[in-house]
Design goal:
Structural class: alpha/beta
Number of helices: 7
Order of helices and strands: EEEHEEHEHHHEHEHEE
CATH architecture: 3-Layer(aba) Sandwich
Distance between the termini: 18 Å
Number of domains: 1
Length: 226
C-alpha cells in the first residue's frame, strides 16, 4: 500500500526571465512502513518538495496523494488540519513552545483538536524515545538532543500517515545526531512509521531503506538499500 504518490509534480516560481523551475516532473511513491531519504545539494529542490509533501505549499502542476487524499483539493484551512492529523513534521529547529512542559508540547496536536491521548500509545512513544523521565521539564531544561526527541514525539502522537523530517540532525553534534537517527529507525520499526527524511548529509541518508537523489528539480537516482 502506497502512503505517498507524486505524479509529474512541477513547481515554478516567478515568470518570464525571472522564472525558476524548482521541481521538474517528480514521480515518487513511498509504501507504508518505508524509510526513505531524499538527498541533494542546496538548491536542488528537496526543501521545495518537502513543503509540498507537508501541504505547506502547492505544486504548479502534477498530483500529490497522501493516504488517499489529493492535496491539491485542500484549501488553506483544510490543509492545516490535514497536516496536523496526517503529516508529522520534524525540523532542524525544534519549534517547541518554551512555556510548556515536554508532555504538553507532545500533546499539543491533540489539544488543538480537543482530543484525549491514547495513554498506551503515548507511553510507547516516550519510552521508545527515552524521554519518559523528562515529561515535566521545560524545553530550556533539556539538551538539544532531548528537545529533538520531544519534537519527534509530538510529530508521532497523532499516528500520522507520513512523518517528514527536514534536516533533523542539522543542529546537533555527532553523538546526538546518531541518537536521533537511532530514534527515527526505532519509530520506523517499532511503530511502523512511514518516514521521508530530507538531508544533505549522505552519512545520515545511509540509515534509510531507500535513497533518492534530486538534482536541479529532478530525481536522478533511486537506490533501494534493503
Amino acid at each position: 500500500m502506497n502512503i505517498l504518490t507524486c505524479e509529474k509534480v512541477r513547481k515554478v516560481y516567478g515568470s518570464g526571465e525571472n522564472q525558476v523551475v524548482a521541481l521538474d516532473g517528480i514521480d515518487l511513491t513511498v509504501g507504508k512502513g518505508e524509510f526513505v531519504a531524499i538527498v541533494g545539494a542546496s538548491g536542488s529542490g528537496k526543501s521545495t518538495l518537502l513543503h509540498i509533501l507537508g501541504s505547506v505549499d502547492k505544486p504548479t502542476s502534477g498530483t500529490v496523494m497522501i493516504d488517499g487524499t489529493d492535496l491539491s483539493r485542500l484549501n488553506q484551512t483544510q490543509a492545516a488540519i490535514f497536516r496536523r492529523r496526517k503529516v508529522g513534521l520534524i525540523y532542524q529547529f525544534y519549534n517547541l513552545i518554551p512555556t510548556l512542559t515536554a508532555k504538553k508540547n507532545i500533546l499539543m496536536p491533540l489539544t488543538l483538536d480537543k482530543r484525549k491521548p491514547n495513554q498506551e500509545h503515548f507511553e510507547k512513544i516516550v519510552n521508545t524515545l527515552g524521554i519518559a523521565d523528562k515529561l515535566e521539564a521545560l524545553p530550556s531544561q533539556l539538551s538539544g538532543g532531548q528537545q529533538q526527541r520531544v519534537a519527534i514525539a509530538r510529530s508521532l502522537i497523532y499516528r500520522p500517515a507520513l512523518l517528514l523530517a527536514d534536516e533533523p540532525t542539522g543542529n546537533l553534534d555527532l553523538k546526538n545526531s546518531k541518537e536521533i537517527m537511532d530514534m527515527l529507525k526505532l519509530s520506523n520499526r517499532n511503530l511502523e512509521q512511514t518516514i521521508v527524511l530530507i538531508t544533505h548529509d549522505e552519512k545520515v541518508a545511509l540509515e534509510a531503506d531507500c535513497i533518492i537523489t534530486i538534482e536541479d528539480g529532478r530525481i536522478i537516482q533511486d537506490e533501494q538499500r534493503r
